[in-house]
Structure formats: C-alpha cells, structure tokens
Amino acid sequence: MIADMPGLMDEIRTRFAHVESCPFEGPRIFFENAGGALHLKSVAETSAFHASLPDNPGRVNGAGQALQRVIETGKADMALFFNAPGGQVFVGESGTELLFRLVRTAALGAAPGGVMIGSTLEHPATASARARWAGITGRELIRVPHDDATGTVTAEAYRAHLTPDIRVATILHTSPVTGMAVEVGAIAAAIREVAPEALIVVDGIQHASHGAVDVAALGVDGYAVSPYKMFSRHGYGVAWASDRLTACGKDNLADGPADNWELGTRDAGAYATFSDVVAYLDWLGGQFTDSADRRARLEAAGRAIKAHEARLTKAALKGTGNLPGLGAMAGITLVGGGAVEGREGVVSFRLAGWDSADLVEHLRRNGIRVHTRKADHYSGNVLVPLGMADCVRLSFCHYNTEAEVARFLSVMQALAA
Known about the structure:
Elements: H1 8-14, E1 21-22, E2 26-27, E3 29-30, H2 41-51, H3 62-82, E4 88-92, H4 95-109, E5 115-119, H5 124-136, E6 140-144, H6 155-159, E7 166-172, H7 184-194, E8 199-203, H8 215-218, E9 222-225, E10 237-241, H9 243-246, H10 268-286, H11 294-318, E11 319-320, E12 323-324, E13 332-334, E14 346-351, H12 356-365, E15 368-369, E16 371-374, H13 380-383, E17 390-395, H14 402-416
Parallel strand pairs: 3-15, 5-6, 5-7, 7-8, 8-9
Antiparallel strand pairs: 1-2, 4-10, 9-10, 11-12, 13-14, 14-17, 16-17
Keywords: Lyase, Pyridoxal phosphate
Protein name: Selenocysteine lyase/cysteine desulfurase
GO molecular function: lyase activity
C-alpha cells in the first residue's frame, strides 16, 4: 500500500502541482478531486511546450513529423490505458461530448426499432444523450432504477428490464455523487445474454483516476474519460470505440477514412499530456511490481490506488486516531449509505442545521476544499429521491493522506458537537 512504503507518498506528491497550496488562496487541503484532480507537473510543462508550436502534425518537416509521432505514441498509450485489443482511441472536446457522440453513433448505427436502456444513477452525459437519441430514433427509453440506500445499481436490477430488442445500453462505471462503483462487467454480460447485438457505452469519467480500466474484460463497445479528472488538463476528452461501433456511420469527411472519429487538426499536446499520465501510472505501478510489461504495471498502479483510497474512505467514514468518522457524527446523513467497499473517491453527506453551501464555505475558511452538489440537472437524479436539496461532496485521490482526512474530521467534529 502507498502509505506503508517509506517515502513513496512524498515522491508521489512532488509530481503534482499545487498539492498543499492554492496560488489564489494559500494553504489548503484539496478534497475536490471529483471536480478535477490535481495536475501532474509534467502535464503543465508538456502543455506549455506544445502550446508554443505553430506547426501542424503530419507536415513534411521536422516539427510536423515529430508532432505526428507524438500523436501516434499518445494513441498507443491510450489503447494501453484502456487495455483495448482493437477498435479506435480518439480525442474530443470533453468526456461529456464524447459520450454524446458515442451514444449518437450507436443509436443511428444500430438496427432500426427496439429500445434503449440505462439507469437512473447516470450522469446527464449519458442520460441526456440516451434520452435525446431515443426520442429522435423513435425508440422506447427504459430507465433501470438505482437503489437509493446503497447509491448504486446492480446487474440484477438491469436484468429485470432486459429484452431481446435492446439496441443501445449505457452504464455508469462510478457515480460522481454517491461515489459507489457499478458492476459494469456483470451488467454488460447480462445484456449480452439477452440482446447480444446491443451496443454498450460506458461513462468512465469518475472511475478513471481510482483504478485500472479494462475494456477487454468489460466486454463493452464504448468508454469515455475526462483527462482533467485523471491528472491531465482541461480542454479534451478521450474515448475508445470497438470495431463494431466504429463500423457504424458517423460524422467524417466525404471520401475520408470511414473509421476516423476525429475531425480537423489534432492538438498533439492533448495526446502528449495523456502520455504523461500513462508514464506516471507506469512509474507508480513499478513501485509494486517487477514486471517488465507496461500493462501489468498500470494494473499494479490501479490496485495500489484502490487500496490507498479504501484506507482514506475508511478513515473518513469510520474515523482515525481518536477522531470519529462521519458515520458516527451526530447530524450527519451519508448519501449512498456508509459502506466503504465499492466506494471510489467520493463521500457525499449533509450536516443537520447547515446549508451545504455554508458548510463548504466554513470548510474553505478552515483550509479544506470541498464542493456542493445541488438537486439540479447534474445531481437531482440522486438527491431528489432522498429528499435532499443539496449535499457536500468530499472527494479524494491517491495523493491525499490520512493526516489530511484527520484534519477534515477535526473540523467536522467541532461542528457536529
């Protein structure tokens, strides 16, 4: 585990920018990772370098050829990150934009008729796309209800709504509100049993920084992530599409390559900064395995991250030292229950007698950065059934420490008391 290896946490934290201090507000603990993780220093350096270049990738000059190699290397790193045996990896405007494009392509490319299915747990990135394209293509839209108490949705819940005429299915890998992971592989397998030709698209945006991604094991057709939530920068998203989904008709230039998902000149810096993320995960995994295989090292990094964050989650919910956890504090209501297992980087809660925005401000004044989630078009699907107008989202990543969680709990204990 990361915290058990002397000096490793310090090495990790030195690789990230603004770990302990905000350039605008000064010292703070960063527990707003679900809104956008800390960025690697290498990403900032790579971004600045590529932003300074006037050249287009692929031109017959040294710079153009070098940038083309950067893109090709980035695509190889993306395929490695996804563990994609085939299909295409590509960048777009954002993770949300890419999910809309994947769902649209699936809806228009699938056989006519039938239905589209997803769950009520999903972020609007897939839920809105699914509703829009079900309406346009004249398909019934099936919404599988998630469990309010546990904050997740199971394969059994999906199975109760499965029919052979499913054309497109969407699955959320991890909820950015409840923090609870979803058994994507089991849900995809259940769908395949009943509707083997269904095209399955996964929102991996919350999950991507909290454990390894393996589309080969999941058996799905599309998967998208937002790099700014996984140590890179804003301004682009990354997706993978299977050969089957890629074969569907999509927006591309007339007489151009039919399998091309990308339009216009690419920003080589996006690919380069994703390669920085993969290089970092490769390094981190190398602290836990002697394997010479890069994918094995990425998987080792995923396991180490998951284990460390489970410790942070347990501390936040159950307590650490002589400090009680949120689960034992008077007046605290936890979104998605108090389970540690299955939770990935997020604990959302309310404190009785406090408006969530006021509590976020109080924590900010005490040097702790968290965020409010409201019962709006982003989070209302989870909060409204719970009778909550808002909540506070505490979100951490593997570079956070148990001492930082203890500091948060000390401030909360004073309020709850």
